[in-house]
Amino acid sequence: MYNTEIFGTNEENRREIHMGIDIGAPVGSPIYLFYPGKIFCAAIHSQQGNYGGTIITEHVITDVKIWALYGHLSRSSVERALGLKKLDAGETIGWIGNQIENGGWAPHLHFQLSVQGPPKCDMQGVVSLKDHQESLKTFLDPRIVLGNIY
After folding, report:
1. 73: which of 17, 46, 77, 81 fits an S-S bond (Cβ 3.0–4.6 Å)?
2. Other beta carbons less than 10 A from residue 33's beta carbon
């Protein structure tokens, strides 16, 4: 599955442990904000195998800041997000993108949580075995906000 250069080319650095949750949905399906927050950033990562349309939101939950990445969105999601400020829970923040605009993947949402504000509009959604334990300190299990979905 992770067979493009962005996932590493040698055994030691190969990234194949997924740190978010993927939720399959038809192209154009709306994506809703899980908790009140604000747009931290929005970008298009057009490289094959990357996120395509990406929105990162910032939230404060019981005095703790967390960031949520919504990946594989449409270009129009990113364009719209750049004009948004504060958002309410349940508000539409974007839509599932097609394979041309979502990094070349089947239509789905990549949802990921972080306790560290990303230095750029990106999060490492797939990590190597050698980085996995350290990554668990940064990336929270998305089921803490999504519920027990499996």
Report:
1. 77
2. 22
Nearest alpha carbon to residue 46 among 111, 1, 98: 98
Beta-ladder partners of 110? 22, 71
Instruction: Name the helix (H) or strand (E) containing 79.
Output: helix 75-81
Split at pLDDT 50, 70, 90, the class of 1 is: very low
State how beta strands 86-87 and 126-128 pair.
Answer: unpaired
Comparing C-alpha atoms, which of 34, 57, 45, 37 is closest to residue 118? 57
Q: Is the pLDDT of residue 2 over 60?
A: no
**Structural element, H or E, at residue 133:** helix 129-135
For the ranges 10-19, 100-109, 127-136, the one whose mean pLDDT is highest = 100-109
5-141 belongs to CATH 1.10.10.10? no
Cβ atoms within 10 Å, residue 78: 22
CB-count burial class (<10 Å; 0-12, 13-18, 19+) for 52: buried
